Amino acid sequence: MIDxxxxxxxxxxxxxxxxxWIQADWIHPRSDLMGASFSDIDxxxxxxxxxxxxxxxxxxxxxxxILSLLDQIHGLRRALRRMNSAVVAQxxxxxxxxxxxxxxxx
Length: 106
What we know:
Layout: H1 4-11, H2 15-23, E1 30-32, E2 35-37, H3 40-53, H4 60-88, H5 92-103
Antiparallel strand pairs: 1-2
């Protein structure tokens, strides 16, 4: 976990930008007695937002849509991993049946 100053330095942004992104609910820091702290995921997200809003010229509404879609993709990937784990935990006959049913999906 990194603090706000280190987050801004590593992301290449100003602190007011980070605060605006937090207010927009684009970045989700952890709060504790020492203040806000940020994860590597927060850092990657801040760099993406910086690139979208800067060189790529995406407006605020566009950034919000892109982040929402990315969050949905990550949620679906988590769900697929859980489903795959559940399938792998089944016995061989059940796995064969699941593969057969999945092969019929266009």
